Model the fold of this input.
Amino acid sequence: SEISPVLVEVKVEVPWDTVKEDLDKTFQLVNREAKVKGFRPGKVPPAIVRKMFGPRVHADVASQLVSRGLIAAVEEHKLQLCGEPDYGDMKEIKTGEPFTFAAKLEVRPTIEKVAFEKLEVYKDETAVTDAEVEEEIERRRKWAIEYSAPEPMRPAKNDDRLGVSYSVTVNGEVEPAFSNDDNEIVLGAEGLLKEFQDGLFGTKPGDDVTLEIAYPEEHTNEKLKGKTAVFSVKVLRVEEPHLPEVTDEWAKEHDFATVAELRAGLRKQLEEGRAKRARNDVRDQLIEALVARNAIEVPPSMVKQQEQAMVYEFAQFLQYSGGMGQNGLPENFFDDLKERAAKRVRGGLLLSAIARLENVKVEKADVDAKLAELAEKSGKHVAKVRADYQGEKLDQLENEILNDKLLSLLEAKATVKKGKRPEPEKKSAASAESEPA
Done:
């Protein structure tokens, strides 16, 4: 019986004759292996075996009956299970009576129809400007920055790199863990404490500076939280930056023959990157619009699994980016995690339904084309790439291809508007609570 679109209750009844047959077979197996003092193996009287091992045999047989009964019910009703069954209070086997049990099962919702035509999305087609090309050139110049001591030496100023050593005292006690014999800092760099910068402007090698820095109560380090630390700093060296000049010789270092070709090449790279981001943004919007138009319930266990996957992805990104707060990562990542996970599960279920209803499949030719593309990008022979993609890795690749085909289908039938998409309206607390999870 259906409790909800994602929860059903299965009731199974096993006739006593079948139960008795399983009990007899199991007792016979136990009798062959039972070790009872005073009897040889296999010669223990059945009555003694049943008395000594009865509870264990009954429990084992009950477990087997439940497993077989559940498998049969799932196959008969073609249920797509999610998560572990909830059996409630398991009933015991009673002599002469049928064995009955009930189990609540989470299932994927049955989706017979999906509305996916004319989903409204926005595509930002802003052109790359000359200024953005120059910004990219400046970034590349900064990658190749070199430092050397000014001649003659002068007071330190913004963008200089300083070598400093320092010891730290907190509440009158020296904290060796915070000290550093030779630390390099760049004045004006993002993340450098303002007090540190202000105190080091205008210094020269050999100068000694004492800096008092008050740390806020919310600071992450317990030893510094809400306390004032005194830094005794010695300036070891002052070095000024030297950026490479934009010349044809420098362009050659970036695989371009001339500065003009460098600018043209960088423009093309920026345009390709922007086009890719715009395409990904459109596809994100398509999933959002698809989910918004098709209200379906999702199994809680699938949402929970998706939450765990998203936390893992987040942790991997943090590890890659070097820590919390990098690249604009949201500080409230976990606040709406369940809601975002539920939307992702809904999107996946709806795409699977579209694949079934529209007969969208991954053909061998699709896989071959993707492997050829990967081979071209990596510079490997296609046979080597094909050998790399086997088993689970090939399954993942086929899933990616299927997902791409489905999103291309949605995009082809969508209403695409030019420009940046409007900011979504903030939902009220009442509407947020009413959304199914």
About this structure: Confidence is low (pLDDT under 50) at residues 324-329, 427-437.
